[in-house]
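Lab channel / #folding
Pinned by the channel admin:
"Please post every new chain as: sequence first, then the structure tokens as a reply. Keep commentary short and put observations after the output so the thread stays searchable."

First post following the new format, from NK:
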Amino acid sequence: MDQKKVKKMWIADQGDGNYRNPILYTDYSDPDAIRVGDDFFMIASSFSNVPSVPILHSKDLVNWKIINYVMERLPFERFDVPQYGCGAWAPAIRYHEGLYYVFVPFVDEGIMMCTAEDPWGKWSEPHFIKQNAGWIDPCPFWDDDGTMYMVNGFAKSRVGFKSALYVSPVRDEGKGLVAFPDEGGFVYDGHATQPTIEGPKLYKRNGYYYIFAPAGGVKPGWQTVLRSKKILGPYEEKIVLHQGNTMVNGPHQGAWVDTQSGEDWFLHFQDVGSAGRIVHLQPMHWVDDWPVIGVNEDENGCGEPVEIYKKPDVGAVYPIDAPDDSDFFQGKSLGLQWQWNANPVKGWYELADGCLRLYAQKQEAGQLISEMGNLLQQKWPAPEFMITVCMHLDEMKDGDVCGLLSLGKYCDTLLVCQQNGVRRLQQKIEKKEKKWAEESRTDLGAVAGESVYLRMKVRNAETVSWEVSSDGESYHDVGQETAAAAMPGGWVGVKAGLAAVHEGEGTGGCVKVEYFVFQPCE
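Reply from TO:
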């Protein structure tokens, strides 16, 4: 396959001074963002996938690249195996006096903080700000007198209540919280008018403290803003962005940023199901010290999302780009688009001779593929695409099971399985309800030769189907089509990736992956 002909799957920059939403058709859930000088940085939830908390960079709020992760691994032993729905929930990023701060909530453990002088470089090891289950969505804030605060929400599944926001002073620039009632406590109860209010971000402008916080639930909800002259309230409330007559459901949970020219913008996500929580960019302006997000044609103070809009004025024009998706494995390390299903172990992979060598890891009796930590995955880059993978099989051993996977509500895999020196193609489907269970194993015939080309097709963000080729030119359909459904209770969209496990005795061999390429569906 010609690497030079491979193009990105979703480009938001229209090349004519405008952009289209979403700016990222990718599952960057719960985005938060800041501007530092001429640079914009955005982070997002990553739950139990590792490395954790991606950092994206942009010069114009439209064209983004992944540049780093805050944590190379999750800081608790429980994440050495997959923990769907747990891990790093909605984080926040801020910059203060030369230091970048990221607050990360672990819903069962507590709120942790990492810092860095250089967001491209090494981040500090996480340490607790608050060790307590159920405190979520933290955001740091520095007042004019230098006092550091944190606002947060609550997870009903862990503490028995939600729809409340809490503000705490932070001592010693992040060593811990000042205990209530010393200048902190509950500042807002949204049960009456703003149910499920969460994801708060705290700002200050023109003498007002503002808390931007989504309410109403992820898919049907809206963006609320609270304001007060005092940080502990009482707070007034106003809905400033809703779906209105658009197709953008639940537009909320995000970040207010400004440009060097003085424009205001709001980044937020939209839950689209299978593809997860994709990122939109909305213009924002102020009326009577209230923000209005999106376009407000009826002038009622509550905006609606835009589809096509003029790009932010950042004083320059920057190249059109998007996060990486395809990979030819030519570098010395994995591309930043890749994440493991659990904390990685040395020996899972190697990059050598222009290939990714995935070493088949022991699969215990009764263990499902979806329960393996060494699944290497990445997010969808578009609602429709196909992935072609070239795999070399000459170093597989008996008992090895290696191939391409789609992981959502279904762990749907197209695998080369070797037994007694014979390789056969199989489709294995596992389903997630409350627990994982195997649905089916289907034999699809012998695999001839030392190389195979596997292809996954996703159409209209609804279905996953499979093809195979022995020469990379002529493909034919195999297996059954499954629904492309997001994992229930996992809070993430469907992912695509690679599996290499060993079902037999002893140690496994390896599969060599030459490329993993996204293309438009044929």
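NK: The CA atoms of residues 315 and 347 lie 47 Å apart.
TO: also worth noting, The mean pLDDT is 95.
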